[in-house]
Amino acid sequence: MTREEEVRACTCNECDVSAAEESAESDFASPRAADDALHTPVMLTECIDLLAPALEAPGALLIDATVGMGGHTFAFLSHFPHLRVIGIDRDEQALALASERLSSFGERFEAVYATYDMIADVAARLGKNGKVDAILMDLGVSSLQLDEAERGFAYSHDAPLDMRMDTSSGITAAELLATEGAQEITRILQCYGEERFAQRIAQKIVAQREREPLTRTSQLVELVRKAIPAATRRTGGHPAKRTFQALRIAVNDELAVLERAIPEAMRVLRLGGRLAVESYHSLEDKIVKAAFVAGASSTAPEGLPFDVPGYEPEFQLLTRGALQAPPEERERNSRSASVRLRAIERIREEMSKA
Ligand SMILES: C[S@@+](CC[C@H](N)C(=O)[O-])C[C@H]1O[C@@H](n2cnc3c(N)ncnc32)[C@H](O)[C@@H]1O
Question: For the chain, which domains are there?
């Protein structure tokens, strides 16, 4: 497999961005200049088309639960002249940049510093009787986070081993590697990075930290390089790719937060409201798919020979499987190569739990 084929085959987010970095630069080069990808929202036309039927009416409200640098939100606010957007992000730096970028929209945009599993609280405070018309989630790490060398997300820049999206709370990657045992580090690398050499890397981490603390991305890159057999190193893309992805997912507890967030997001949709989610990793997409399929299924006890009134599905799927970015977009924006876009619409009020 060529390097390009490998990148196309891999569903992880990190890989695509880093592939662009790798082709242009050697390791530990200076941060990539802000290019088009930094501001290019992924599958924008498809996101607008999928959510539009819920947003046409005056007074419509969209929650962009991963506002990032506001790329999608900017386009939505421009496209729907009466739309109001609440933009959530756990990264205060991103929120500040988005707020500045979107300031010309005045009160039509409001930034909220939170994790997206708090979406029901946000909707209760700022929504329409606790409900919203549409929600967009563009998961994972932003180009801003990858490009800011000091954040420690990219294996191609030497920086403190941090990787927190919210730099004000939680433990850093360095703290995680200093405190977890070899078994847990192996699990993280296997589950979140699908790293074949997880155990070898974990053992090396534990041995090395006895001698000196692992605090820099360059130390980790070097350690992983040594842990991976030379033959694999020559063919498997950047050796630290999977380790960095796995640590980032663990440090930010990404999958657990997502698992809580999707059902909450579905709950706050008004009748006819729509939710679109862009995933960049098969583990994220699996969570989204499972929640959507459950929502679009009858809740009647299994085995009944007829449809029980009141137990019909609350949602309908708006995409057949997951949509992928068209080839032209993949050519233009390497980030879009691994995206999977799914969307649903609420077609029945929430069934009373009483
Ligand atoms: C891919 S970027 C979004 C880019 C944005 N759609 C744009 O066009 O500029 C993902 C953003 O989601 C944020 N994020 C990731 N996990 C989050 C969570 N659990 N809660 C809130 N924000 C989160 C990240 O900090 C990042 O800014």
Answer: 38-143+254-346 (3.40.50.150), 167-251 (1.10.150.170)
